[in-house]
Amino acid sequence: MCLAVPMKVIKVNGTVGSVELSGVTMEVQLTLVPEVKVGDSVIVHAGFALSVIDEESAREAVDLWKDYVDHSE
């Protein structure tokens, strides 16, 4: 199964960015979202930011993940 996760962009350095979710940060490729800027939310999969999403969609996706984790324990 493949998963794509919404993450917040905290740094942009050319085509590489740092993203964060729940205290976890990682570097991702930004070549597919050249319009991205710090503060945007992006969908991340396999080390690539695939698309920029609005804040409400990102929040809903994170809430769904949290609910899933809470109920799978």
Secondary-structure blueprint:
Elements: E1 5-13, E2 16-21, E3 24-29, E4 41-45, E5 48-53, H1 55-72
Antiparallel strand pairs: 1-2, 1-4, 2-3, 4-5
Structure description:
- The protein is of the alpha+beta class and 73 residues long.
- The chain has a single domain (5-72), classed as SH3 type barrels.
- It is built from one helix and five strands.
- The protein has one helix at 55-72, and strands at residues 5-13, 16-21, 24-29, 41-45, 48-53.
- It has a five-stranded antiparallel β-sheet with strand order 3-2-1-4-5, with helices on one face.
- A hairpin with a 2-residue loop joins strand 1 and strand 2.
- The two termini are 20 Å apart.
- The mean pLDDT is 91.
Q: Please give the largest β-sheet.
A: 5 strands, antiparallel
* CATH fold label: SH3 type barrels
Structural class designation: alpha+beta
Q: State the end-to-end distance.
A: 20 Å
The percent of residues in helical segments reads 10-25%
* CATH classification class: Mainly Beta
Q: Approximately what portion of the residues adopt beta-strand conformation? A: 35-45%
Order of helices and strands: EEEEEH
Number of helices: 1
Overall pLDDT score: 91
Widest sheet: strand order?
3-2-1-4-5
Number of strands: 5
Count of structural domains: 1
Unreliable spans:
none
Gyration radius (Cα, Å) is: 12 Å
CATH architecture type: Roll
Label the overall shape: elongated
